[in-house]
Amino acid sequence: ESGLASYYGYAKAGKVGELTCAHRTRPFGTVLRVSYSGRTIQCRVNDRGPFIRGRIVDLSVPAARALGMMSAGVVRVSVD
Amino acid sequence: ESGLASYYGYAKAGKVGELTCAHRTRPFGTVLRVSYSGRTIQCRVNDRGPFIRGRIVDLSVPAARALGMMSAGVVRVSVD
After folding, report:
1. Interchain pair A76, B2: CB under 8 A
2. Each residue of B4-22: pLDDT tens digit?
3. Strands B20-22 vs B31-36: parallel, antiparallel or unpaired
4. Is A72–B69 a contact, with Cβ atoms under 8 angstroms apart?
């Protein structure tokens, strides 16, 4: 399946070094292969979500970082 | 000044309902006006950062949400 992924700072922790994610329907413990921009990571489902239409997976911050999607959350602003 | 903004899930909490952010040099307590994509919010500096070259401000998640930049962190993926 393909769709939108976001990441969330309050993800449940996995084992040390384990990448985790939230999925609406896959059983807990399932390892998903998530690909973005030519990179693929494996992450273990340990939470439910995302609950926003069109999003198919929520990655923990370490998983999002491993996938290289963190910089997508960076935008240009002006500060006064 | 203009530059890149990111947001961070572990921002220090402000008073209830107060938007907060991290800046490298502005004094703690300073209220910044941050503009993105035609929207402007005010957020109070209560932390130091960001420490990545080219980024000028780190917003707490509520501040990033108010500014409308959360969806910028959403990317298209495939899941197997």
Report:
1. yes
2. 888 777 778 888 889 999 9
3. unpaired
4. no
CB contact under 8 A, B1 and A78: yes
**SS3 readout for B37-60:** CCEEEEEEEEECCCCCCCEEEEEE
Q: What ipTM, to 2 d.p.?
A: 0.72
What residues of B are in contact with residue A37 (Cβ under 8 Å)? 75
Which CATH number does the domain A4-70 belong to among 2.40.40.10, 3.40.50.1000, 3.30.70.420, 3.40.50.1950? 2.40.40.10
Distance from the A13 Cα atom to the nearest Cα atom in chain B, whole angstroms: 14
CATH code assigned to B6-26+33-71: 2.40.40.10
Q: What is the mean pLDDT of residues B41-49?
A: 93
Q: Which residues are CB-neighbours of A20 under 8 A, at least 6 positions away?
A: A11, A12, A13, A14, A43, A44, A45, A46, A47, A60, A62, A63
Q: Minimal CA–CA distance to B44: which of B59, B61, B66?
A: B59
A63 bridge partner residues: none
Give the β-pairing of B55-60 and B20-22.
antiparallel
A32 touches chain B (CB under 8 A): yes
